[in-house]
């Protein structure tokens, strides 16, 4: 095991030309949680799905928090570096291109941190119920990377002002952000799946 090893699942691509997905689960999830979602969003993509290495009362997460919505930002930075190293190693090991992250909740928050701290790691990101992960992020250069941010209008964990701030932050850093607010709470809805699938289909069509 290297320093950056994560327990993970990897499923190879079954159709050439679809972007690999980096699947990042929410608090209490694991590496199996989002495989089905990944297949629905982008059938044929390679799937790389790590388990978060931080435990909160036995529940896996991608970084430590001090309270709900209050993050240990030193840990966010450390864990984003670790995850970035894991993705780089996995790309070599499995021979895949830079992935598009698909993160839910805590997984979306670490994906947002990766975009801001290690912009080269991801080709883009689908952020489901994400929040601003760092109060004072570095100036990132996202050079047009595509980001889909899907928020819930009635999300009790992510205030509307917070997701709007994240969209602005990523746009200012140069990402091509699509932000939609759905009639949903923190949990995912069918609309998330449909919008994510259409969005990634458009990205693939533009890249072809
Ligand atoms: C987080 O801690 O990343 C957010 O509060 C979302 C959650 O995991 O509940």
TrEMBL record:
Keywords: Hydrolase. GO terms for molecular function: hydrolase activity. It comes from the Bacteria. Pfam families: Abhydrolase_2 (PF02230). Residues 21-200 form the Phospholipase/carboxylesterase/thioesterase domain. Belongs to the AB hydrolase superfamily. AB hydrolase 2 family. This is Alpha/beta hydrolase. It comes from Bradyrhizobium niftali.
């Amino acid at each position: 095991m290297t320093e950056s090893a994560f327990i993970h699942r990897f499923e190879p691509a079954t159709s050439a030309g679809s972007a690999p997905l980096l699947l990042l689960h929410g608090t209490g999830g694991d590496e199996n949680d989002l495989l089905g979602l990944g297949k629905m969003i982008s059938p044929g993509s390679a799937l790389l799905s790590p388990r978060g290495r931080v435990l909160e009362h036995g529940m896996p997460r991608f970084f430590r928090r001090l309270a709900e919505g209050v993050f240990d930002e030193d840990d966010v930075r450390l864990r984003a570096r670790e995850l970035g190293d894991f993705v780089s190693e996995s790309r070599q090991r499995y021979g895949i291109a830079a992935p598009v992250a698909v993160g839910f909740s805590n997984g979306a928050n670490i994906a947002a941190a990766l975009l801001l701290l290690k912009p080269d790691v991801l080709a883009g990101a689908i952020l489901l119920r994400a929040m601003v992960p760092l109060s004072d992020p570095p100036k990132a250069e996202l050079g047009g990377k595509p980001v889909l941010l899907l928020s819930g209008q009635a999300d009790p964990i992510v205030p509307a002002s917070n997701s709007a701030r994240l969209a602005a932050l990523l746009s200012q850093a140069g990402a091509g952000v699509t932000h939609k607010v759905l009639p949903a709470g923190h949990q995912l809805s069918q609309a998330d799946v449909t919008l994510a699938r259409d969005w990634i289909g458009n990205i693939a069509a533009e890249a072809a």
